[in-house]
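Reader question, answered in our methods column.
A reader sent in the components of a multi-part assembly and asked whether the whole thing could be modeled at once rather than chain by chain. We filled in our standard form and ran it. Here is what they sent:
COMPLEX SIZE: two components
ENTRIES:
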Amino acid sequence: MFILDEIRIYDATTHVGYGFPKESLEQALKWEPHAIVAQGTSTDPGPFYLGSGTSYTEDANVKRDLKLIISSAKSLGIPFICSVGGAGADIHVEKVLKLVDEISREENLKLRIAVVSGEIDKHWLKGKITSGVLTRKLVNVERFNETLTIKDVDDSIRIVAQMGYEPIVKALDMGVDGVLTGRALDLSLIAALPLKYGFDKGLTFHMAKILECGALAAEPGSGSDGMFGILRKDCFHVKPPSPLRRCTIASVAAHSFYERDNPYMENLPDGYLDVASANYTQLDEKTVTISGSKFIPSGEYWIKLEGVKLVGYRTICIAGVRDPTIISKIDEIIDGVKNLGFKVFKDAGLRLNEDYTVVFRVYGKDGVMGETEPKRGLKAKEICIIIDVVAKEQNIANSICAFLRSSFLHFGFEGRKTTAGNLAFPFSPSDIPVGPVYIFNIWHKIRLENPYEPFKIRVIEFPAKMVREVYG
Amino acid sequence: MVKLKDIVKIVRSKNAGPFKLTIDLFFDDKDKYLLVKNSKTITKRKIAKIYRIPEENVEGIFFVDNVLGIKITIIKKTASDEIYATDVYGAQQHIPIMDLTIQP
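And here is the structure of the entire assembly that came back:
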């Protein structure tokens, strides 16, 4: 194997589609990276995107970022490694591949790309469950079964898994210009090339952990700028290419807090990263050097699965209230409106909490924190009410919301003087059908014998000759 | 006796995945950080009471001396993806922590 003394990775942005300054990329290219990397999958925006098959990023923004990353990597003859598609199932990745096809045509680039699917085949997964492969829920939340069931798999609309670095290394070895993946462990993208060349796993993953959010670990931090990493045998350096930013010991160490449950450790498929013993030194004005991070192997290999199911369809109505009598009696009025509605809906054959749910969200009264609000009660001169209905069908949600809204508008209560209407609607129409609502029903890990097994790899050449053929 | 909000530089809450909430506190002064750390005000028991969860759902409280930072991670009472959720990203759930009284 070709031996490298140091490996340089550029992480171009926090998330594919969040943008980055072109100048940062140009500066980073002068530092001669061995790969350009960016993550583009997440569950942070919630279960909706995995369920609906849509993306939380805009195509134009994703295309702009990928065009710069792919054409720069291609011109330097280095690989690009990006996860794409938001929730990261095949339906999301296919849409991004269409953008890549456009890029290759517009930029006159011939590309050979390995595409690693992050979607889990339901038949494969059910076969694993049936044959007794170990699964375990990842968080102590009651709704999840301790171990995955066939029903969980059947209930879910689609399932993705966070791939490790191994399938990405395999894809890199297919004689390609770069790798695009569906749902992946963010750290895998950055770690793949260094681990292919035998760099230390602890240092590699720690560098990946700092780089994965781009310039968020710099000072000032940014969600739309890049971070450069230089990995050696016994340490690594991190520095942002932007002249506006620098890495400091505090900015880098504090980044280990961001959206993480534990600042010292990071779970990985075959063990965990321990950064408690890491040493941080300020190498120069904008560079921090880190050593001493450790990878602790577990001797097992587990990947994380994510799946969602449909719970219903939502309709909301937003309204304001300014009348002091209504505000002072708001709980009583809401209860009255609900009871009126529940009776009517019951007569229509609808079961509360089975066929529909109703939430009155009152802003101005514990709307943000609910029962954990330390200063409970009402002090506002005006309040905002959101009538939030979720039902098994969209038209049922629409009709329940409409009934509650009109009942509230004309609800009679003790001491009422404002008999023309109780609510101020900012919009017409007042009711907004929001569409399908999803919930995570799989949040488990599964033990694998083989890290490659569920992740299919295709090599696709762009411009695609027969677009229809390639995209099915 | 001092309120935490009067001595902390950054106090923020955010999801760590849809089911966990993590609260970060950063100080710009070692004395202030140590005042809070040594006061033993931030305990699993107190956090459980504030967020109305069982003590076992307070996953961790970390005092990280080299960044003058404190991290508190809990399993949420209402997960981000539930119909009854009020804060999908968990970015506005730090208020009760701000108001903690620190007694040296």
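What stands out: Chain B has a mean pLDDT of 94. Chain B touches chain A through 42 residues (CB under 8 Å).
Send us your own complexes using the same form.
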